[in-house]
Amino acid sequence: MVKIAIPNKGSLSEKSVQLIKEAGYACKRRSRELVVRDTTHQIEFYYLRPRDIATYVHDGIVDLGITGRDLAIDSKREYHELLPLHFGKSRFYYAVPAHLDITPDDLDNKRIATSYPTLVEQDMAKRGNTVQVVPLSGAIEISIQLDVADAIADVVESGQTLKEAGLKTIGDPIMHSEAILISKASHADKDSDIATFMTRIEGILRARSYVLVEYDAPRAKLDTLTELTPGVEAPTISPLTEDGWVAVKSMVKKKGINILIDQLYDRGARGIFVSEIKTCRI
Fold first, then answer.
1. Which positions fall inside the Histidine biosynthesis HisG C-terminal domain (predicted)?
2. Non-local CB neighbours of 121 within 8 Å, separated by 6+ positions
């Protein structure tokens, strides 16, 4: 059986399970079990701590794993990133008291509290700084107030938590993170079951970026309308019973769909409908 590690809690877990279910696999837990077996597809799903998943992948205990890019890098384990999964996105910043006017390059000989010591050590080394990394597992923001650290390095989403703690980010993000699918080797997809799993996941991810637009078009204006909706290979065009009209169906990017509808209507399209796409192969 193929063994795949899934985060055992939090938003990474919920969105991983949703993605895998949409791909047609039975991975949902009934309670708090650590292993779910999909006997139809011969896959075992292991629910593990996100921070540990890169280690299990590196050691060959599981074939694939879903975790955050930040956690995988911080693990110090070697792995191969197969797919970015486009959820769990975050930015990793340094932060200091709001009244200070400094940059990350000014943190030499300072104490930096973080849950990601490897990321901080690597980044500070690139800058030529020597720092004391203070590893903490949570509530990083309070460490400066308690005089445990001079600065912190942490995942930042809205920045509201930092603001409430009297802190501000400095410099550009150290890194951009998101959920990723990883394996021990780049050739993991040589296994047919793994290749099928990856292809299905890719199909779901691609479908989330597209919609299917359908509309009726005057044949005389078909060329100018299909310029807006060229499709993947070409749009599907079917005759209508109304003389001089055809039906057009095309796959288009979801982003900006309302602007596209306005443009289609202005060019003469009528009966415009947009449908979600559950999965696809392109």
1. 207-278
2. 133
